[in-house]
Automatic annotation (TrEMBL):
It comes from the Bacteria. Residues 52-189 form the DUF218 domain. GO terms for cellular component: plasma membrane. CDD domains: YdcF-like. It comes from Chryseobacterium pennae. It holds the Pfam family DUF218. This is DUF218 domain-containing protein. InterPro entries: Cell_Envelope_Assoc (IPR051599), DUF218 (IPR003848).
Length: 216
């Protein structure tokens, strides 16, 4: 009995070690592959018809303003006003009546002077995978500037490129490393999950009819 317990313990210990190694490898691999396609400098961002702004809530659970949200809005505004892009797909979670990331971001962008007819809403961006793949399958975009914080852009750009999209990430300003600790820790697991999604061929939760973005 004792030997059996010992063997079971060894087995689970090996699984744990293998899991840690896999997570570390996935994070290293995604960061390395996406590094050349990310920048904080607008001058280094290629011109594209459309940007994909990845959604997040405008407030935290404690009711305080979410710096991730406002930094992304600032980055999207600066990118649009620089002339690098003509349209912005705002993709995020709209899973409940009182929580609507795309519309909150649209309102914030309009307040910054972005014309509303240049903003396209995607209410089914429940995951980064969904947002990226839907930008191609629903909105017909094969070249994108993705806007989020660097840690998130690494994963989004990697996913986009693996799904046949020519993608470049424009990095919004990050938040204080202590304030963003929980988010950054969660990102380690999210990057590992990317490979499982690719292996299993996971698709967006919702499809839909194609939506034409006008030529400029």
């Amino acid at each position: 009995m004792r030997k059996t317990i010992k063997n079971i313990f060894k087995f689970f210990l090996l699984l744990l070690v293998a899991g840690i190694i896999f997570i570390a490898w996935a994070n290293y691999s995604i960061k390395k592959e996406s590094a050349a396609s990310l920048s904080y400098n607008i001058a280094e961002v290629p011109t594209a018809k459309t940007a994909l702004l990845l959604g997040t809530g405008k407030t935290l659970n404690n009711g305080m303003p979410n710096a991730y949200f406002y930094n992304r809005i600032k980055a999207a505004t600066n990118l649009y006003k620089s002339g690098k892009i003509q349209y912005i797909i705002v993709s995020g979670d709209n899973s409940s009546k009182d929580y609507n990331e795309p519309e909150d971001m649209q309102l914030a962008l309009v307040q910054q002077g972005i014309p509303q007819n240049k903003i396209i809403l995607d209410h089914a961006g429940f995951r980064t995978l969904d947002s990226v793949v839907r930008a191609k399958d629903i909105f017909g975009q094969t070249k994108l500037i993705i806007i989020s914080q660097k840690f998130h852009n690494e994963r989004a750009v990697f996913l986009a490129q693996k799904n046949g999209i020519q993608a470049f990430g424009y990095n919004a300003e990050d938040v204080n490393k202590y304030a963003g600790l929980k988010t950054n820790l969660r990102e380690y697991l999210a990057k590992a999950k990317v490979y499982w999604d690719l292996i299993l061929g996971v698709q967006p939760k919702f499809g839909g009819e194609k939506i034409l973005i006008p030529q400029y």
